[in-house]
Amino acid sequence: MKYAVAAAVAWFLAVANVSALSYISVLGVTPDFVLILACCWAVIRSEEEALVVVPLCGLMRDLLGSDPAGTALLGFAPIVLLAALARTQVIDSDFPGAIAVVAGGTLIFQIVQTSVLGATGQNIDLWQVIFSVMIPAVIVNALFAPIVYLPVRWLSPPRALAMQGGRRLTATLTSKS
Amino acid sequence: MRLIWWLATVGAVSLVSIFLSERGALAPVHNVTLTISAPVENVLRDAASPVNDIYTSIVDHGSLVRENEDLREQMEELLTQLADQQTNQQTINSLRDALGVKENRPEDKLLAAHVIAQDVSGQKRMIAIDRGQNDGLDEGMVVMSGAGSLVGTVAAAYEEYAWVRLITDPDSAVNAQVNTGVEQPRPAATPGVITGGEASPTAAPTATPAPTGEPQSTAVRGVLEGDLRPDVVLDLLPPDAKIEPGNLVVTSGLGGNYPAGILIGTVKDVQQRPESAFSKATVRTAAQLSSLDTVLVLISFKPARLEAP
Q: What is the pLDDT of residue B183?
């Protein structure tokens, strides 16, 4: 059921991204809500879910975009690794981790996308892509991340602190008390 | 270990998908996805359009007022030119009839299409339209705005839908010419035929580009290239070209991929460097490419790449 919901939300966000949200242009780029959803889901929910939801998001983005199908699937895959790293954080909130994963995931996705487009014959002006697309996209996606983070956080059960590992400051304090 | 296997699997599937996609094997999948999503996309675009208009009018109020004044002045001049042009056209028609001269492109067939989606990846400038191979579309066909200026070409045609590469896309290259000494758009001389019934009938007289025939002696030729910015760059111009801001830029027809005489835009500024073999000009597109709702596909013109055996 949760995967069906994730797929439906990813599809809706992908559709909204290429239609209504395409009017939004901040720093010259449009926020990628599908990527943000993949990042937030991967950080907030379990790794098992991330292994399914992240490719689902990539698939939806591939099917509704003009890039070669598989580009987003490939570009989103590292988000699972970034989310795993974010889970090792030492503070008792996954919000900074989610923002960091959104920023890192966006950068990696942009690099993968540029590589795929370059390999498939697209004319790439690397400096322009870096300064006009990559850097603005990292900033804009991170800025818009709370819009997706909050509903996902709200709909997710709170994490059991014991499952976070002893590296969390609060986990240690909680167990002593 | 599990993550490594997962990454390897996803990577392999992705690479196979990219390969198949480049070979066109996944076109039916894209077509089905767009068929399912198009109604929702249309509703969302229609809903967002007024919100965008309000937002734009608030943010760009000052520039809109200035633009409005400029447009009023331009319209007045155009109407004056139109009156002259109509008189001249009547003379040309009667002379053409008398001499038995054939028109260059007597009747263009245009197919109206709705824009349903826009690529938001940032590295491309593409739009999706609700017409495809079943409507006679093919890759490379020329796409124009409702007012008849150049928008781009069909990049990928599925059964019911197509992706259009805008002239601002980095992969776009158009043989163009600057009509020096001409600073206002010429009204079209021959009414076109719009099929599909979705374009306003009033658009017909302006939808067809003016049949220009041979390039004018005052034309300066170059290659128009997109580079992700709203304006496009006209490169490979002769270093001594006398080009001024406001000059009209139209397709030259060289190469056979675009008919000659389609309006592209106006020269914004010129960069002439003595040490360079060519000069460049920045061109402001006539069509508002970021907010297109309806476009016209020129289905009667077969680009050279489609005509080739």
A: 47
Low-confidence ranges of chain A (pLDDT < 70): 89-92, 159-177
Strand duo B263-271 + B248-251: pairing: antiparallel
- DSSP letter, residue B254: G
Give whole-number Cα distances, B293 to A13, A58, B261, B300, in Å: 21, 27, 23, 22
Measured between CA atoms, the residue of chain B closest to residue A117 is B123
Q: Can you spell out the DSSP letters for B140-184?
A: T-EEEETTS-EEEEEEEE-SS-EEEEETTSTT-EEEEEEETT--S
Give the minimum alpha-carbon distance from B31 to chain A in angstroms, rounded to a whole number: 9
Cβ pairs bridging A and B (under 8 Å): 142
pTM of the model: 0.77
Q: Does residue B200 carry a pLDDT above 50? A: no
Res B212 pLDDT > 60: no
| The total number of residues written for chain B in this structure | 309
- Give the model's pLDDT for residue B278: 84
Three-class SS state of B270: strand
CA distance to partner chain B, nearest, from residue A72 (Å): 8
